[in-house]
Amino acid sequence: MSDSNILIIDDEKELRTLLSRLLKLDGYKVFEANDGEEGLNILNQEEIHVVISDVKLPGISGIDLIPKIKEINNKIEIVVLTAYGTITDGVTAIKRGAFDYITKGDEDNKILTAVERALEKSNMSKRIEQLEKRVGEKYNFENITGKSLRIREVVHLAKRAAETDVTVLLTGETGTGKEIFAQAIHNGSKRYKHSFVAINCSAISKDLLESEMFGYKAGAFTGAVKNKKGLFEEANEGTIFLDEIGEMDISLQSKILRVLETNEFIKSGDTKPTQVNARIIAATNKNLNEEIEKGNFRPDLFYRINTMKIELPPLRERPEDIIVFAEYFVKSYAQHMNKNITSIDEECMRKLKEYSFPGNIRELRNIIERAVILTDGNIILPSALPKDMFTGKKNIPILNSGKLEDVEKLYIVKVLEENEGNKPQAAEILGIGLTTLYRKLKEYGIEE
């Protein structure tokens, strides 16, 4: 408790001294102020975690002091002291942002309990802030790995998009890092303090997807016993990432279009619209122009989400980044597994650069993770790489084909083989929903 600082603001010196002694005996460092102005001066000079303030103070009242304290640091929790019989003051204080109120003359243990609970909340708020900071640092443009001209051009375009509130469409093959870019755009925007909410449109059935995105009112259908808040509401003032939007049922696309045009939607079972202010970033590995021709995607929605299109290049088109990623993954996995692996063998490097990586960065990451597991020394050797990776049987057709379908089909077959036909596990590695995997197996004639 010795690292927790408490400020007591009260014009009754005897009570202030008594509280101070009580808190010091419990291990707290205590500061004292006679009125609100003196208290604010201390708050501007010292790191205070909890304020105990009387409601009745000379000058600024304890009630009016609450928002001023929160302006200095909104992580500070405030416990107000009220006179006996003035509970309304305590209720008003809580409405203004105070954590709790206690009545003067209450037993010591009540005061200590209130302070302990306030400190728990203050510490939790700090931990959440630190976690958000770490997440923001992880998913920012400076931490996007790659030094090729192609990726630098994409990062530049994404940075420009982040400066605005424009809808972004991220395109590219599976495994090129679309969600990482979406998070970096969010964290580089003015919305970074608010939620980033991601949903995979292919991983959830149509009816469930609508409920997840827009929520519903109690009684909307059997089993809807209470109101449900949708992900668009969760992302209010922040960003919602619609991954694999090309897989979304066309009937749901009209609702997305309405949100883009009016910033509102009507949830199931409701009669009035819900207002929402969420930036939309969408992603797809499909050719949406072809999907429009097939009648699977609304052209009006495409035109709205295609305002700022950013295409992420496949790894085979930026081979200079393969080693950059490989070295990064080796360092990361070796540290995680407590292994002293310092480098990658030159022959291993050559083989990695020659491979076309149909699964892109996700496939490279899986290969390196496997290699780290199999390496006992401090250098990764070619023997730690998958044996079928360099037979040429799968690499040559991929290099000679310009069609995304051929690349995708061969990679799906490869992942299924490596996972002994385990489809849920293969879908997870591929980064697609299980229903999408089954559809692609049928579409490519891999399975009937």
* Main sheet specs: 5 strands, parallel
- Oligomeric state of the chains? single chain
Give the helix proportion (percent range): 40-55%
Uncertain residue ranges: 132-137, 392-402
Q: How large is the count of helical segments?
A: 19
Quick one: how many beta strands? 16
Q: Can you put this structure into words, describing what you see?
A:
This protein is an alpha/beta fold and 448 residues long. It has 3 domains: 5-132, Rossmann fold (3-Layer(aba) Sandwich), CATH 3.40.50.2300; 139-311, 3-Layer(aba) Sandwich (Rossmann fold), CATH 3.40.50; 316-443, Orthogonal Bundle (Helicase, Ruva Protein, domain 3), CATH 1.10.8.60. The protein contains 19 helices and 16 strands. It has helices at residues 13-25, 36-45, 62-72, 87-96, 108-138, 149-162, 178-187, 206-214, 231-234, 250-262, 288-293, 299-305, 320-336, 346-354, 360-374, 395-400, 404-418, 423-430, 434-443, and strands spanning 5-9, 29-33, 50-54, 77-82, 100-103, 168-171, 196-200, 215-216, 228-229, 239-243, 264-265, 274-275, 279-284, 308-311, 343-344, 379-380. A 5-stranded parallel sheet has the order 2-1-3-4-5, with helices on both faces. A 5-stranded parallel sheet has the order 7-10-13-6-14. Strand 11 and strand 12 form a beta hairpin. The radius of gyration is 29 Å and the shape is globular. The termini are far apart. Mean pLDDT is 84; it is low at 132-137 and 392-402.
